[in-house]
Amino acid sequence: MMKFIFMMLMLVPLSCIKKSYWFNQYMYFFITFMFGLSFSFNYLYMNISYFMGYDLLSFMMILLSLWICSLMLLASESIYSKNYFYNLFLLVMIILLLSLVMTFSSLNLFIFYLFFEFSLIPTLLLIIGWGYQPERLQAGVYLLFYTLFASLPMMISIFYYYEKFHSLDFFFLCYDVKSFLLFMCMNMVFFIKMPMFFVHLWLPKAHVEAPVAGSMILAGVMLKLGGYGLMRLMNIFLTVGLQVNYIFITISMVGGFFVSLMCLRQVDIKALIAYSSVAHMGLVLSGILTLSYWGMSGALVMMIAHGLCSSGLFCLANISYERLNSRSIYLNKGLINLMPMMSMWWFLFSCCNMAAPPSLNLLGEIILINSLVSWSSWTMVFLSLMSFFSAAYSLYLYSYSQHGKLVSNLYSFSSGFVREYLLLLLHWLPLNILILKSEFLVLWL
Amino acid sequence: MYYKLLFFNSLMIGTLIAISSYSWMGMWMGLEINLLSMIPLISDNKNMMASEAALKYFIIQTMASTLLLFSIIMMSMKFMYQMNLITYFNLIFNTSLFIKMGAAPFHFWFPEMMEGLNWLNAIIMLTWQKLSPMVLLTYSNTTSMYLILTIMFSMMISGIMGLNQTSLRKIMAYSSINHIGWMISSIMLIEIVWFYYFIIYCIITINISIMFMKLNVFHINQLYISMNYHILLKLFFALNFMSLGGLPPFLGFFPKWLTIQTLIQSNMYSIAFIMILMTLMTLFFYLRITFSILLLSKAVLTFYTQPKINTNYIMAFNFITLLSLIFVTLMFNFL
């Protein structure tokens, strides 16, 4: 594990060199491939050194963070070409990547908490530093304080748990805690991070204000921190979980439906994608809270799928934003006339977002539906509504942005670059190829 | 101005006498020496605000010293033991120390006075002048209900009053009141935790205040034009505020971590909860100071020349205040 940490640490001086943007990007891919070679096959921890190591769940999450971070550099080429503090951007990126990898690979709850908080600060810097409107200050404050408000009680409860059970190692995290208060204090931060309906308000704000890299990391990895933490911590809340989880499952299912309805009347493409990720992560959250094998495996599959898919959609939104300088769905229309090949990518990603075969979203959704229906057959109502409306808003996004008349205020326009097609391909390929070897994704328990 | 050198030395000596004397009278004497040498340090015959601050400081501290002297004399009387009055005079004793350090219900003089100081004096007020009252508080009988009340007042008042301040010195004063709350809670339980907290608080505060001094800024809006330095320097300066607010990867998290853990070990959950949530409010106004930096874009004025500052040693200092959470556990070997 240490070798990957050191590889990333040595990228810190590299990121301060002028005109080293693409070399950095190349090194990110190199780390990703190096890491991919040390595949972890099941629930047993591998490569344990110091306080780090990974099982299959952590491995997939780390791989996802490495992959999304490499693609973030590929996507934010405009920062480099416009020379807008790109060295600082590289620095923030590598610190963010480092914090995420440390979060997912830590074997101790407190170390996990420490790096979980750490990852907030580079995200905040990304949003406030490279965002677009002045409202990004508000969005950054929302992001920081929503999370901190819940995560500091979590720190108290971590210390409480340590006082009672004398270990915070994930391996020994198996004592059943029968306290609803502790359940709330520990898990609220993950509910906020997921985000669960009712505490999701920071997410659309942050997405709307963030630059493309910030949106990609938020949708791609930061939301998964919540799911990852819940999957690790549900072990100690089995008794109380059986009693209270129905509340949060209900909130997520009904909320997912409401959010899908809200997607249908968004005019901001990025806000639409952000709300759709609230709906999808609600599904993941309910899957985890069923405390079943299917739910846990499905949550992992769905998180990988959603990370790649919504990150790809944010890339697409940014590609048309860079050309039209607007994210409004009333201005981003008729794009099939200008970028027919990009229209194919819009279609493919919209299909993935509505869980069409052969995407990983489909597999995740099937597994999660299995877990939820076996948990209670009443969830079928909202599951079917969510599935239907996810298809509806994905088609809404696709057809409104691609069909119709072109907006008339276009002055100059370039069609897609090879970099952008590569970026989208690298999102789409793992999303649709991984299903061929999907048994590995459901073996982590 | 060479007399300031003399008074600075006697300021140090006063504190050292106060914290190392073994009789209450010697302690009082040390505090008086400390107080009387602070006044010439503050006063400046070209600045009326400084003289006003010196006067305020003198009046308040003298009142506190009088209370202190009163309580220690009364506590040494023989009838005190017979009539079981010593706890009441202990309250007076603690109160006088709270006035001296500026803890919350007795804090009103502190931000007002800070407004009249230059940054060097502000550094002394924020750090060194806290030392003797706090050490003396550890010697006193820490009756916990009164201390808890003071902690809660410090947390709430600093969080709320700091919100609509634009003066950086007042913000630093309210931040100091917040940290006083934390430090009192660690004094209440384990003194060595207070020691870590005080050292780390001083390091971060000195670093921030020195940067303010070099930039010669006193209000938030001035930060927008005086932050045109090297981008990393700006960023590290902003991160220092997050360190002061106690966000995890930075050094400032370490003392908060220790304090919370000792609080939880002593089963004081609700006060830990309140302290943490109130500290979020101070974090908010720290974050507001850093907005001008985090926004990255900068205003360049034509007829404004930047003061020259030596970035190397500030960067080295920043390295300590930001990254040393990894190394700070080595402190356990030496203290």
From TrEMBL, chain A:
Pfam families: Oxidored_q5_N, Proton_antipo_M
Entry's transmembrane regions: 21-44, 56-75, 84-104, 110-132, 139-160, 180-203, 210-231, 243-264, 271-294, 300-321, 342-360, 380-400, 421-444
A GO term from the CC aspect: mitochondrial membrane
Reaction catalysis annotation: a ubiquinone + NADH + 5 H(+)(in) = a ubiquinol + NAD(+) + 4 H(+)(out)
Keyword Cytoplasm: no
Residue ranges annotated for the NADH:ubiquinone oxidoreductase chain 4 N-terminal domain, each copy included: 1-103
Entry keyword set: Electron transport, Membrane, Mitochondrion, NAD, Respiratory chain, Signal, Translocase, Transmembrane, Transmembrane helix, Transport, Ubiquinone
EC number: 7.1.1.2
Signal sequence range: 1-17
Membrane topology, as annotated: Multi-pass membrane protein
Function: Core subunit of the mitochondrial membrane respiratory chain NADH dehydrogenase (Complex I) that is believed to belong to the minimal assembly required for catalysis. Complex I functions in the transfer of electrons from NADH to the respiratory chain. The immediate electron acceptor for the enzyme is believed to be ubiquinone. Core subunit of the mitochondrial membrane respiratory chain NADH dehydrogenase (Complex I) which catalyzes electron transfer from NADH through the respiratory chain, using ubiquinone as an electron acceptor. Essential for the catalytic activity and assembly of complex I.
Name of the protein in question: NADH-ubiquinone oxidoreductase chain 4
Organism field: Popillia japonica (Japanese beetle)
Gene name for this UniProt entry: nad4
From TrEMBL, chain B:
Topology with respect to the bilayer: Multi-pass membrane protein
UniProt KW Cytoplasm keyword: no
One GO term (biological process): mitochondrial electron transport, NADH to ubiquinone
Keyword Electron transport among UniProt keywords: yes
Pfam families, A to Z: Proton_antipo_M (PF00361)
Keywords: Electron transport, Membrane, Mitochondrion, Mitochondrion inner membrane, NAD, Respiratory chain, Translocase, Transmembrane, Transmembrane helix, Transport, Ubiquinone
Catalytic activity reported: a ubiquinone + NADH + 5 H(+)(in) = a ubiquinol + NAD(+) + 4 H(+)(out)
Domain of life according to the entry: Eukaryota
Enzyme category, top tier: translocase
Segments forming domain NADH:quinone oxidoreductase/Mrp antiporter transmembrane: 21-282
GO molecular function: NADH dehydrogenase (ubiquinone) activity
Any GO CC annotation of this UniProt entry: mitochondrial inner membrane
Transmembrane segments: 7-31, 54-73, 85-110, 144-164, 171-190, 196-219, 231-251, 271-301, 313-334
InterPro entries: Complex_I_Subunit_2, NADH_UbQ_OxRdtase_chain2, ND/Mrp_TM
Location of this chain's protein in the cell: Mitochondrion inner membrane
EC number assigned by the record: 7.1.1.2
Free-text function comment from the UniProt entry: Core subunit of the mitochondrial membrane respiratory chain NADH dehydrogenase (Complex I) that is believed to belong to the minimal assembly required for catalysis. Complex I functions in the transfer of electrons from NADH to the respiratory chain. The immediate electron acceptor for the enzyme is believed to be ubiquinone.
PANTHER family recorded: NADH-UBIQUINONE OXIDOREDUCTASE CHAIN 2
Protein family membership: Belongs to the complex I subunit 2 family.
Name assigned to this protein: NADH-ubiquinone oxidoreductase chain 2
Organism per entry: Popillia japonica
Gene (UniProt): nad2
